[in-house]
Amino acid sequence: MKVFVTIQHPAHVHFFRNAIAELEAEGHAVSVFVRDVAVAPELLDAYGIDYEVLAPASDSLPSLARSQLQYELALLRRAWREDPDVLTAISEPAITHVSTLLDCRSVLFCDTEHATLENGLAFPFADRVCTPECYTDEIGDKQVRYPGYHELAYLHPDRFDPDPSVLDDVGVDRDERLVVLRLVAWDAVHDVGGAGFGDAREVVAELERHGATVRITAEADLPPELADRDATVAPERMHDLLYYADLFVGESATMASESAVLGTPAVFASSLTLGYLDELEAEYGLVFTTGGDNPQAEALERASAILAGYDETDWAERRERVLAERVDTTEVILSQVGDAAGRAGDADRGVAHPLAERQ
Fold first, then answer.
1. CATH number of the domain where residue 143 is located
2. Is the pLDDT reported for residue 60 higher than 50?
3. Which three-class secondary structure state does DSSP give residue 60?
4. DSSP states of 193-213 as a string?
5. Are residues 147 and 267 in the same domain?
6. Both 54 and 171 in a single domain?
7. What is the β-pairing status of strands 287-289 and 52-56?
8. Is 73 strand, coil or helix?
9. E strands of 148-201, at which residues?
């Protein structure tokens, strides 16, 4: 097979990296293309994945439109020249547009219902859209639902082996109660209107009042008085930190889900709602979303309750339930990409096929 993978966000590197490694180990040709967004190229370098930057990052809707046009034209030129069997990405319209123009296959993954702009531009042209079973929107016959989460493509225990030395990197002892606090910039298109915290200093003070050691990962600069709490670890080691943390509190839905599947309880401070976080909360009690009138106050109340009654065994048992009932998502990626490529080849030979078997 010839497979194109496109990357628009650091989390997409994690999502695809194991599938890329397995496809290449089996002798398939994988080309990786990236938008020049913060951290993504660094992660690709850290994992030894070759890639090509096709377009710069954007900081406004007009620049996003320009960047998207540049991205799609560059991807179209590469696909015209290399003739891939399958293009795959997370919620990226470019792969569906290019595959439609060149009559190859697109496999789109999506877990974010409120990414309405990207989804609206991508879904009509996609050959198949793979979503977790908990995804709340109905997409139609092209939708393939599977019992898993994006984060289990790289944090399933078959894929992830945590390294405790990360605690030394952030100056935390094993017997300290560790809270990871995530602050986001809220400038992504699909994040508009989702702000959670108003005053990071108040959040840190309340968490530390319960005896916790706080380490912060932030998209913007921290206030000077919080600079010594900065979690200065390499981006590829953040999951080690989340695994050994006792609690995650933050504004990132992805990191909340990552924490949950690692067995670290997560308090998500945002007014945004997502099917996968709702399921991790309702079915497994590993995520707590605080999206009322005052997300910060709600988040601190929930975090305080977790720290006051912490039971490590209980959280580990909740994680075991997740792993028993949900799949290794990398296997889903491999099966869907392989099936799409096979059907593309058979279609070229004039062989008719029914719809792909659902996961």
1. 3.40.50.2000
2. yes
3. coil
4. T----S-HHHHHHHHHHTT-E
5. no
6. no
7. unpaired
8. helix
9. 178-183
Q: CA-CA distance, 120 to 337, in Å (whole number)?
A: 22
Residues 110 and 217 in one domain: no
User: What residues make up the domain containing 101?
Assistant: 2-156+328-348
Report the alpha-carbon distance of residue 345 to residue 67 in Å, rounded: 32
Would you say residue 196 has pLDDT above 70? no
Polymer length in residues for the chain: 359
Identity of residue 328: D
Same domain for 300 and 199: yes
In this structure, are 184 and 319 located in the same domain? Answer: yes
Residue 356 lies in a domain: no
**Gap between the Cα atoms of 280 and 286, Å rounded:** 6
Same domain, 277 and 176: yes
237 secondary structure, DSSP code: G
One domain, residues 26 and 120? yes
Q: Taking the model in full, what pTM does it have?
A: 0.90
Residue 145 near residue 132, CB atoms below 8 Å: yes
Long-range contacts of 218-221 (CB under 8 A, 24+ apart): 218/182, 218/183, 218/184, 219/38, 219/183, 219/184, 219/185, 220/183, 220/185
- The first and second tokens of residue 211, run together, are 């005896």
Q: Which residue is listed with tokens 């990236």?
A: 34
How many structural domains comprise the chain? 2
In a domain, 355, yes or no: no
What is the tens place of the pLDDT at every residue in 203-245? 999 999 999 999 999 988 888 899 999 998 999 999 999 999 9
Are 121 and 333 contacting, i.e. CB atoms less than 8 angstroms apart? no
DSSP character string of 89-138: EES-HHHHHHHHHHT-EEEEE---TT-HHHHHHHGGG-SEEEEETT----
Residue 358 lies inside a defined structural domain of this protein: no
Are residues 280 and 182 part of one domain?
A: yes
* CA count, 13 A, side-chain hemisphere, 209: 11
What is the model's pLDDT at position 357? 40
**H runs (alpha helix) in the chain:** 10-25, 40-46, 61-82, 93-102, 116-122, 166-169, 200-209, 238-244, 253-261, 275-282, 295-308, 312-325, 329-348
Measured CA to CA, the distance from residue 68 to residue 222 in angstroms comes to 31
Packing angle between helix 200-209 and helix 295-308, nearest 10 degrees? 20
